[in-house]
Amino acid sequence: MALMIYGSTVSPFVRKVRVVMAEKGLQYTIDPVSPFRAPPDFREISPLGRIPAFRDTDLPEPNHLCDSSVICDYLEHKYPTPALYPSAPYDRARALWFEEYADSILAETMGRGFFFERVVKKILKAATDEAVCQTTLTEKLPPLFDYLSAQLGGNEYLVGGAFSIADITVATMLVNFEHAGGVIDAARWPKLAAYIKRMHERPSFKACIDEERPFIERVRAA
Ligand SMILES: N[C@@H](CCC(=O)N[C@@H](CS)C(=O)NCC(=O)O)C(=O)O
Fold it and tell me: Whose CA is nearest to atom 6 of ligand 1?
């Protein structure tokens, strides 16, 4: 078995695939492609130029895929145990909704509006616009945290009483938020803060976070 991920480990979408693979006990290698400095032929496997891309060399060519949701769906079908998508139709659909919510509004708000400013711009030697970060923290994120808190309620997981792709996709976005110095206010959103802490303590997440942290600290200190 030779599974390959193309992409930078600090991408929340790359981490989503890595966490799925870790939860399923799959071995893989990473080719650390940056979307901003990708080799010219990268668009042959990722037509939008985005990371992650993926290859399963057990298959004859073409054996590549791109887009984290597509890759995770492939992994779920090829390696069904443990299941990371609920089997009941409504729960499955709800999990896909949270995956969409995280990949769209959470990624945009925490990524573009926060992690990009404080971390990616430093890597690109561009100036951080702290006003953008403050708007994100004070105006854009609170309604999203209100929504997630209400959806979680007092439950351990977002959907169907079990860990799923919904939890993985929401929690990976919050890793980038924390890498950029964000903190969920535990006084205002106690259950959400405790839930994200629990998700990030899972071995699958912790291994990624521990591996990424020294790089993030170096970038933020520069
Ligand atoms: N829907 C895609 C989004 C991937 C994505 O936006 N990745 C970012 C890095 S975190 C990227 O490659 N950005 C470069 C670009 O959009 O040109 C997925 O789920 O994989």
Answer: 50
